[in-house]
Amino acid sequence: MTSGLTQEQSEIRALARDFVRGEIRPRAPEWDARRSLDPQIFSKLGELGFMGMRIPESYGGLGLDLLTYLLVLEELAWGDASVALGVAIHSGPVTFLLQRYGTEEQKGRYLPGLASGELLGAFALSEPEAGSDAQALSTAWRRDGPQRVLTGTKKWVTNGGLGGLVVLFAREADGGKISAFLLDPKIHGYQVGKREITMGLAASETVELHLDQLEMGDGALLGAEGEGFVYAMEAMEVGRLGIAAQAIGIARAAFEHARDYANERVQFGRPLADFQAIRFKLAEMANRITGARALTFSAAEAMEGRADPEAPSPGVMAAMAKLTASETAVWTTDEAVQIFGGYGYMRDYPVERLLRDAKGTEIYEGTSEIMRLVIAREAIGQTGA
After folding, report:
1. Using one digit for the tens of pLDDT, what is the confidence trace for 20-50?
2. Are the C-beta atoms of 212 and 189 separated by less than 8 Å?
3. Among 47, 208, 365, 369, which one carries the catalytic annotation?
4. How far apart are the C-alpha atoms of 197 and 204, rounded to whole Å?
5. 270-271 and 178-183 as β-strands: parallel, antiparallel, unpaired?
6. Could you tell me the pTM of the whole model?
7. 94 and 223 share one domain
8. For residue 235, what pLDDT is reported?
9. What stretches of 265-367 show up as alpha helix (H) in DSSP?
10. In a domain, 186, yes or no
11. Quick one: CA dihedral 86, 91, 95, 96, positive or negative?
């Protein structure tokens, strides 16, 4: 696929790779150990335009196509998956929904700050009892004169404590339909709960949100009332491509570490890379990563209306890309640890962190099991869940 990139795409990817090599990769182990990113990293990415990749130039963004955005995400994940996840949530579901369904007033108020990195976007859909089943939301809003009053708890909200704009989903009280809202975290009643202690992506801030009689005006409603579930599913399709790119970046980093180590490490008088068992592992890593990247690029083309007419629908292509890329990342990082042997199990070496980070890509934005359900539904001609 590389030969098909335009000069601009190649230059943007090179810019991202240089920045990641100098500013992110050297600090990733430190951020993982202290479970916190440098708070300035998103501002620095904003200065390069990488927080506004999908935002139109008229609002201060770069207005890049989907493929170029995914190329940059892969580079960010090659450096640190926690950084890539923060950008993917911000630039995927959040800005996508705001651009598609926001009013001109909402776009003018939020998009320039999102593009510069001054505002960080968060996406609040999941709840303690509503993970894969997004229809089961219990967070609710009710009318109180000219205000809507919101009450409930959100779970696993990336950027939730840092976010300057939160896209949040809640249903109308007494079992009504789900709507989407734009929340400013400074609003009274918005409370950041406990910080989750995660297996991987340790530097990523994932929190609970508690909404205690939070009052919203009509300007907080995003799009049409009652259409929130549809919006959430559309955003998830875009988000899944971002996670696929992130998984590819993680896998590529693991492959490169394993390849270099196999060439340097000598056992029984020979480099590990001379042993057929190791050579086959590295070959399969390269094979799977290349295939996952090609599928992700094809899914991006489908999402932008350039698909083969006989290909699956764009949403199913996105599910295929996420499933394939995330499972490739987990397999590749596991094999990388095996190649490193005892050293791979130590936190002094990078591959154990990559294995922990990779596992998350099989879970968030839809588990691998949910991805298979999405794919199977179209494959066997069903229209229901």
Report:
1. 999 999 999 999 999 999 989 999 999 999 9
2. yes
3. 365
4. 10
5. unpaired
6. 0.95
7. no
8. 95
9. 276-303, 314-340, 351-360
10. yes
11. negative
